[in-house]
Description:
Blueprint: E1 15-30, E2 33-49, E3 62-79, E4 84-95, H1 99-103, E5 106-108, E6 111-114, E7 122-134, E8 142-154, E9 157-161, E10 169-172, E11 175-184, E12 187-199
Amino acid sequence: GLTQSAATRYADGGSSMNTLAAFGAAQRQFGSTQCRMGMRWSWAQVQASFQDTTWLQLVSPEFDQSQGALTGSVSALTRWSDQWSSMASLSSGFRHPNVDDIGKIREKGGFVLLPNPELKPEYLYTAEQAVSWQLNPNRDVLKVDAAVFGSLWNDAIVQANAEWEGDTLFWIDGDWARVQTNQNLDRAWVRGARVNLSARLWPQT
């Protein structure tokens, strides 16, 4: 690579991102259980054009990537008594790489982020179980919420070390920097738990 003199951080030939989505939702009551379900279809397209090849040469200087996905969620809220309730939910999510993810060029702290036209969308699948208890359902005096969740992050987009034309270093702004690109990890697990406590410290006036 050569010195990045008059080049910009983004594709000099221009870049754009278009998105389209449609969704629907439904709700039903089965005894003491309230069920909710939703579905969403999402589509995104990213286009970018790199015209100046004096310092950065891409195999494909024209990016045109598009993909759609169907995601959704379902949850069940059950009231076991005036004090106890629980909620279970399953959901999925989708994120298409944006202009920053695919085509941004940035040098910081000895690393240089270079474009990756092979970057794919990432997906998230989450399951959660929550339990709630309140001292008095008619008065917001004391309430405790607890939940555990687990998420599978598939094709997660992360910035990682890479090579550019067989080299791990890239000459930019008069110095060498370690090459990195945004890449898709196979998968990552996110697990956690939370507890919320809310209480009224003095009578309501």
